[in-house]
Amino acid sequence: MAETTTFEAAAYTAQGTARERVRLPEAVFDGIVNMPVMHQAVKAFLANQRQGNAATKTRGFVTGGNQKPWKQKGTGRARQGSTRAPHWVGGGTVFGPQPRAYDQYVPRQVRALARRSAFNARARENAIYVIDQFTYDTPRTKALLALVGRLGVAEQKVLVLTDGVKPNVFLSGRNLPNVHVMPYSDVSTYHLLWSDVVLIEGTAIGHTLAPIAEEPLVATREPRSATPAAPIRAVRKSAKVAKAKAPKAEARKPASKKTAKKAAKKVAKADAATAPAKKAAKKSAGTKRAAKKAAPKKKDR
User: Fold this and answer.
1) What is the CATH number of the domain that holds 180?
2) Structural domain of 33
3) What is the pTM of this model?
4) What is the DSSP string of 42-94?
5) How many domains does the chain have?
6) pLDDT (tens digit, 9 = 90+) per residue, 170-196?
7) Mean pLDDT of 231-237
8) 17 burial class (0-12, 13-18, 19+ CB within 10 angstroms)?
């Protein structure tokens, strides 16, 4: 008979404060790890999740194809009896999948052995933490996320096992992609092997841990100083007034430049308005000169 070993796990409070290490029960954590049994249990678990709804139609279930496409003889083609035969496009499928059950049965004792083996595998890796008690009055994702971060396992897959059904703890971890919460009695081999770290509530394995003084997760605000608020407000007002005056003083300096630019723009607009008249006058003068040149000269008598 194989020798049994004992394991100890680190214990923490629900806020992540470290406690004394806890000895894990030997009834479950006996040190035996049976790999073939775990493989059988996981394979059966995944197979039982399948619905088995895949279905295809044989030639008898495809619509149409009742009439012979052409006569038996005289066409030179190969004889055909239906357009829904498997070798026709749009025809039936041969040996396709049909709805069936993928259920696999694993004996109860084999399932229990696989479950213990998964627990022992995580215990050998020091990946089991004991939490004294989850006392959540309301669902708080922030509290569970702070606990996971304080334990240093925020980047790993965390399985939280509670003592019985605790809806508030379940709702607190439902929105965390790497955290899965479930009762200790419902855990399976698949869930244990899926996780990297397992958090077990102390009362679920028979440990009732006394409460201890908690360290605050969030730093408290420092008390306000006893200095009067009136001088501080006066300083702030003076700073605001100085900031408001500074842009006005800077705006006065380039005022002359702005006026010069405006005057130049007005002159340019006036030139642009008179430019068409000047062009028309030049054109008329040019046409008059051309007409004089083209006119025949008078001969002297």
Assistant:
1) 3.40.1370.10
2) 1-48+100-213
3) 0.66
4) HHHHHHHT---------TTTSS---S-SS-SSSSSSPP-S-TTSTTSTT---S
5) 1
6) 999 999 999 999 999 999 999 999 999
7) 68
8) middle
